[in-house]
Amino acid sequence: NGDFFKYKILDNKIIVLTLADGVGSKTCDWFASETACEKFTEDCELMLHKNFSENDLLKICYNVNETIIQTSGNCKGMLSVFSAVIWDTDKNFLHFINIGDTRIYKISNNSISQISEDETQAVIMKDKQGKLIISDGTTVVRTGITNALGTKDFNVDINKCDFTYGDTVILASDGFYNCKSSFETDILKSRSEEHTSELQSH
């Protein structure tokens, strides 16, 4: 389905989580997402050490973007949306990055909230002749992404979020959070059941 996930623990200290979803309307969506996660993780391993800076993370993101742009052959022109969480386990906060319509959620005190912002806009659909597509008397509108890895005008922000004992972060592609309207409720229920199971086992 074009999704790829990878995580890495660096020096038993820094945890890197990545999720990418290749843009299906472009070529090689599966390879775009795999490349994004693999390259980001590889560069983190090379560049991130104790007291790393947000500039380090920016450099890594732009390296990943350039790698995808430079892909040649049948996969030239591929794109991917992307999320990453980087946590120095000595700190009570984490850095997170979100590009496109992947999402990052945080669970704290049995409450779930989306901490990333969707980089999307409504797009009015037209046919090949440029005429509006109408369905049941209504203009067809779809959500299009406004930012992705693999574009020349790519941009990214490095964000921070408090992260303390008992908190949870979740990375999700649109294939997950859109599959059911009860996604957030289901996640909370699953987490609650997992914690109950852990308590019963002790």
Q: Compute the gyration radius: what is it?
A: 19 Å
Strand order of the largest sheet: 1-2-3-4-11
Which residue ranges are poorly predicted, with pLDDT under 50 across at least 5 consecutive positions?
198-202
For the report, how would you describe the main beta sheet? 5 strands, antiparallel
Notes on the protein architecture:
With 202 residues, the chain is α+β, with helices and mostly antiparallel strands. Helices cover 29% and strands 33% of the residues. It is built from four helices and twelve strands. It has helices spanning 29-47, 54-69, 174-177, 183-201; strands spanning 3-10, 14-22, 80-88, 93-99, 103-108, 111-114, 120-124, 134-135, 138-139, 141-145, 159-162, 168-172. Helix 1 (29-47) runs antiparallel to helix 2 (54-69).
Summarize this structure as a short list of keywords or feature phrases.
4 helices, alpha+beta, 202 residues, disordered C terminus, 5-stranded antiparallel β-sheet
